[in-house]
């Protein structure tokens, strides 16, 4: 891992309240392990969104901030993202590369004999 590559913490769920301190410790360790001040939390396997997931992510963000870092989410369920926004927790989200649509009026394939536009 280089200075620009953030560490990744994979969250597989559902997460119980007893697991939260262990996950906070794991996040703290990743922040200490390298110069990157961001830890990416892969939440794709977290399970159905709910208040337990919101609580976990809020605690992880608080832990990261106390250690001088931040949390960035990878692959959040849209419902989880909406719940976090509703709770007032504005997380940075990793974006997938954007799929570009062809410009309007441009054909992707041309058949022989088709008139030019």
UniProtKB/TrEMBL annotation:
- Check the record and name the PROSITE patterns matching this protein: STAS
Protein name in the entry: STAS domain-containing protein
Which residue stretches, if any, does this entry annotate as coiled coil? none
| Phylogenetic lineage | Bacteria, Bacillati, Actinomycetota, Actinomycetes, Kitasatosporales
Q: Which organism is it from?
A: Streptomyces zinciresistens K42
**Residues in STAS domain copies:** 8-113
* Region called Disordered, residue ranges: 97-117
């Amino acid at each position: 891992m280089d200075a620009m590559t953030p560490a990744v913490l994979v969250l597989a769920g559902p997460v119980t309240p007893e697991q939260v301190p262990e996950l906070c410790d794991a996040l703290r360790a990743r922040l200490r392990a390298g110069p990157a001040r961001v830890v990416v939390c892969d939440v794709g396997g977290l399970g159905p969104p709910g208040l337990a997931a919101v609580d976990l992510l809020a605690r992880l963000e608080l832990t990261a901030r106390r250690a001088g870092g931040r949390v960035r989410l990878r692959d959040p369920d849209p419902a989880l993202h909406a719940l976090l926004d509703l709770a007032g927790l504005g997380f940075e989200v990793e974006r997938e590369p954007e799929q570009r649509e062809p410009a309007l009026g441009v054909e992707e394939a041309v058949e022989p004999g088709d008139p030019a536009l």
